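CORE FACILITY INTAKE
Project code: CF-77B
Contact: R.S. (postdoc)
Sample description: multi-component assembly, two entities in total
Requested service: structural model of the whole complex
Turnaround: standard
Below are the sequence entries exactly as provided by the requester. Do not edit them.
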Amino acid sequence: MQGTKVVRPFPFFRAGARASQPQLSKPILVLEDVYKFFRPDQPTLRGVDLSVERGEFVFITGSSGAGKSTLLKLVYRELRVDEGRVLFCGRDIARLTDKSIPFLRRNLGIVFQDFRIIDHWTVFENVAVALEIVSMPQRLIRSRVAEALERVGLAGQGPEQTSNLSGGEKQRVAVARAIVPEPALILADEPTGNLDPHLAIDILTLFEEINSTGTTVLFATHDHSLISKRDHRLISIDEGRVSEAQQGLKHWQGSSGIHTLVG
Amino acid sequence: MDVKNAITRARRGLREERRLYIVAVTSLAVAFICLGATLLGVTNLDAAATRWGQSGRITLFLKDDADPQDIAQLRVVLEGLGDVNEVTHVTPTEARESFLEEADVGADLSGLPSEVFPASLEVTLVQGVTRERSESIATRLAQFRAVSDVESYGIWFQKLDQLLWGARMLALGLALLVMFCVVAVIGNTIRLAVARRRQEIEVMKLCGATNGFVRGPFVLEGMFQGFASALLAVLALLAGYLALHESVDSTLAALTGSRVVFLGAWTLVALLAGGAAIGAIGSAVSVRRYLSV
């Protein structure tokens, strides 16, 4: 029968599944000649080629509206590519059926600028939700949440109402929620955008600590001061095209200046 | 779908949106009370009709000056009929005593004249005798010399049947109306709940929640609302029944020969299960419509 090929949830995207040896040797994320249009004549992303290895920490930068969030949205399938392919663990996620998308997202941790935590829930409830969706037993949820809260520096604050927390603490809760299912890849979309510079460095350090345990991190930001302090791989999006530096701003060889690069 | 988890989250939803749900449940309980009251009416009419229908009775009122020999002959004829189960001779004194015992209308009826209580033969027919057959027997018995009048209760059955049919139609109409109300009210309540919990839903979706995981608690909440409304209505009707049946019972017994009955166990189960099912359906329809996950 002719028709659209349906891609069912493949094993890697099932809860509890581990990557096989061949999968581990491949880049975790590959974008091949990706185009995304919101207006027919003006692509937000044009011919983006990108490869991210396992365990990498990558800054994605560019001015406001350059397409940083769009790129991340393509990865967690909030948006679908118009042309090209996005391969996560070797699988083309543009071809996933709607029913398969939740299984993709269980392998990702997503952190936003506006935290997206529920104010009338407790800290524990906000973090536990990421494990409840995979029907994990409560006993395990309790221990895993406690461990995640400890990693983000909120040990013992589980019963606290989230509305009582400061901005920095709220973002830590969001980070805890992202890391608690032990995802393969963390997507951070301007996670320091609502924080003062001091707290921004704290949060960046937190992501680096998470990265040091082997989790791949894509950290989108337009904060020049933050990028300049670290030597991570840097990918810049400008007018829909990407250019990159392997070791931070110091090694930047792009045609545009730093201010154009980071907005 | 993890049912235990869905129940936990539905409980949280009910707690957080309790004001909204209390208003919805109260409104729906009123609708269920209307339906329940009609069903109660139908049940009692049905019980009266069944009692009368099953009794299959004919009353032969005897002339005051009837010859005892004619009465005895009449009894022999009646007892010989295959359709007759039992024949009882009721004297005027027995008729008066029986009436005074059953008619608790709060007035002194002992002064009623003796003509009001003629002697009679109460004929009980066997089970399964049709009304037509009963009428035919009554017509033949009217021709006996000792008989002044025959009551086969045919006209009463006819009226009762019409009343019962009307009540059943009313109950059916009300049931449809209540179904529509429940679906509409619960649908709108869930729609509001979905709007208020938009952020939670978004967070769950980003964490990888499936459609079933997100929708499950809303369906359970709708089911609970439907069940709670029906239960509230049943309890209100039961309270009304317990408060009034004592005073209504004796009058009704005197007038119709039957007592007030409450809704049957299966009707109650149907009302509660129906409430829950319609609630779940209303919620599922609303969630499917307003929650794009």
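Facility notes:
- Chain A touches chain B through 22 residues (CB under 8 Å).
- The two ends of chain A are 50 Å apart (CA to CA).
Invoice: internal transfer
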